[in-house]
What we know:
The strands form 2 sheets. The chain has a 9-stranded mixed β-sheet, sandwiched between helices. Strands 3-2-6-7 form a 4-stranded mixed β-sheet. It has a single domain (10-19, 42-91, 120-322), classed as UDP-N-acetylmuramoyl-L-alanine:D-glutamate ligase (3-Layer(aba) Sandwich). The chain is an alpha/beta fold. It has helices at residues 42-54, 70-81, 124-129, 147-151, 155-170, 189-202, 210-217, 222-229, 271-284, 289-303, 313-322; strands at 10-15, 19-24, 35-40, 58-66, 89-91, 99-104, 110-115, 142-146, 174-178, 205-206, 236-240, 246-250, 253-257.
Amino acid sequence: MNTNIDKNTSNIIVMGECMVEFGRAAGCTANDNLYKKSFAGDVFNTGIYIKRCVKEHANVNFLTAIGKDENSNEMLAMMEGESLATNLVYQSNSAQMGLYLINVDNEGERSFSYWRETSAAKQVVRFLNDDLDNPALKNVDSFFFSGISIAILSEGDRQKLWRFIFELKAAGTTIIFDPNYRPTLWSSLNETRAAYAAAFELADIALPGVDDHMVLYNAKSAEDVATFLEQFAIDEIIIKNGSQGMLLSVDGKRSYVDVDPVENVVDTTSAGDAFNGAYLSARLLGRSAEQAAKFAAKASACVIQHKGAIVDEAAFAQHLLDYPM
């Protein structure tokens, strides 16, 4: 990752889907059926946490497609409030944002119901191909995407995206991939594995979780995940394994980072997204992989002690004061 922040502000693109989120309103029980509307999506969340951590040291551009309805306009306003750049947010005439309902059990674990079949984000590659002269696509330092980013695309659009990412990589862009597997978005394990293989071949940094690799590749441990991914030319592999900590494989050298247990788990939504954002921010600001992983684990712990994917800005700002990089 380009860590030269003194001479130039880094340009980061995060590509994915943002949806309308309905989560149980604070203080309400299941019997109340009262939900609060907000906006979230794995890569969108990561982009917000990157920007909150790096502030003026990076431009963070969210690459997506939304609609022209009220919800879409509200999401744009939220992005502007979070200082995310909107140069690559395309607005479809024929589709709107997807929507999901989130419920959280007594242990903080969440379950989702989705309405995203006609999500505008599925059209993003078509918009992108028509806008390749956009200045926001020039001099890109880092490009981040996830398994969800590619799962919602058609196979034809996925192939076009690989060519686009290949060209970015050839121009010196750091390519970052989080597998973030969602089985309902894929037609088969073989389709997923083929797409992920293409992503891993392009990635300079990978941010996998052990649970996903257990399902996809029959991994039994973080070591199995490292062994599988080290066959690709990935410089930096950060393997997240919940309370068991992290296994880091950087330039082929493995190390382990412990995490402190979190007793007050309120909502695990966006734990991995916050981790990704904080980790990438710390690396951007010149921290070592181990330092970045420890900082990211603290940020993730903060997020799971609050409701919703995006923690209140003041609460997160206080966390950064309490646990600086």
